[in-house]
Specification:
single chain; 239 residues; alpha/beta; Rossmann fold; six-stranded mixed β-sheet; 13 strands; 22% strand
Length: 239
Amino acid sequence: MLFFYVRHGDPIYNPNELTPLGRRQAEAIGKRLAVHGVDKIYASSSNRAIQTAQPTCEILKKDMTILDFCNEDHAWADFAVELPDGRKTWSFYHPELRRQFVDPSVTALGLRWYEHPAFAPYPFKNGLERIQKALDVLLLEHGYEHIPGTGTYKAVRPNDDRIALFAHQGFGMNFMSQLLDIPYPFYATHFDVTHTGMHAIEFGAPEDGIVIPKVLTLSSDAHIYKEGLPTNYCNYIRF
């Protein structure tokens, strides 16, 4: 199985929709995914993710399935923290928490990183458990049963399906870290995804019934380049 995780296009967060550039990006990723086809298309219940998935659905003449657990508002409730000036930001953007995320005392806790005393005031554990439960159900529906804490899956129904999920950056940090069993602080501080950036994760041939998922591409924007659109990372770093 190939699992494609795609972030939404360039957004306007209020109202919740894509900019004209974001719509062109959505068309570009739709053309890219259509080359070899997609068997199942999922989208977060957030409008900007739905709009990003629409061109892919239109080109391939497929319906999308809405997954509310992927809506970034839910992840924001569990993983947003307050800055000194009263504004809120993602935990992985907060200067103090970023340093704590890479502290050896946190790293040593591995997947139970949230037990560190520094994170006691935050509902991180609840958010992780909510996303992990829904993610495991989703992957089992597609033939792969998560073996927690190992980075592996039991191949209940090995297949060559191609699955696409259109969602978000903040939610995606949790989703990807848990799909791969990489501690969230490590993943969130060292990896990212641009607008319509595409992760491709291969669930390859099982060995003794076990599959170790492999990331083939991370935040790939080749479709943006091909269509001659600006390849600026999230509109602030020129590539």
